[in-house]
Amino acid sequence: MFEKILHVLLHTLEESILTLPVLFICYLLIELLEDKILRKYKTSKLLKNKWAPVVSAGFGLIPQCGFSVVATDLYSKKAITIGSLMAIFIATSDEALPLLLANPKNYISLAIIMGVKFIYAIIIGLSVDLFVSARNKKKKQLLSTQQNINVVVDVSKNSGEEKHKEEHNHDHKNENDYDHEHEEEHNKNEEITGCCHHNLNNKHNKIKDLFIHPLIHSVKIFAFILLFSFVFGLIVEFVGKESITNFMLSTGFFEPFITAMVGIIPNCAASVLITQVFLMGGISIGSCIAGLCMNSGIAIIMLFKMNKNVKNNLIILSSLYLLSCAIGIIINLII
Question: What is this structure's pTM?
Fold first, then answer.
């Protein structure tokens, strides 16, 4: 028994160690560009028009959960639409891209996964914004009609009352201006943390800062890969690949529901687990896509932390889960 465990461990180390330099290079490049790209995303004028979900989906393809966290912050401040938020959540693959890049044999799968996530994110983002816009327009029309019905012209108002009202509005406006300035100052100083609790608003001033986070993150992800690969290898060794295959086949239609449930876990470990199991042949590509569409790292936690509308957050979470399951099922039927 000990010999089998040792064999699995050595085999896992042999396969996993090759991914470490690739991971470090990927995360180093991301770190070099992250600050500049994040600031460009936050100030992009394209986020204000109807095609904003397309832009968000594009930024979402960049590895790590930094962009989805920033998008969550922008959404809580009403700087982007719900469609843009959902687009970047669906497009985000967290650690999947570096892991798939570290496995050249799976580049076709990489292209399919990233392509499906990007297109699906755009479709959902635009559709959600279109639906919300139509609903808001209908509400405004109903409100306008109601106001027209209830309009009462009061000609008895004297100039003194009007002047008093103007002074009150002026004072109220000054108070609002002060509050708005205070809020903007607070937002500038607010710390938005990323995957390894580093400040996403922090500007890199030292060369060592550019290397420490990529190194720590690479080692952390490598540890996850090593652990999951070792555990999965032990299961294959003692349970048997045929038994595992039969079990996964027995889940059939419901497999995407399971992987999407794993994707809800607000941690990069979820995307590592989903991707590793897919690379080992444990799940289908549709189920992998379902799990990765659902997983956006720690962004889900940040959504509930930053956006105080719990009902709205639950609607977003449940919608993402059902949409992720749906695309997983569709892909499994096609491929």
Answer: 0.70
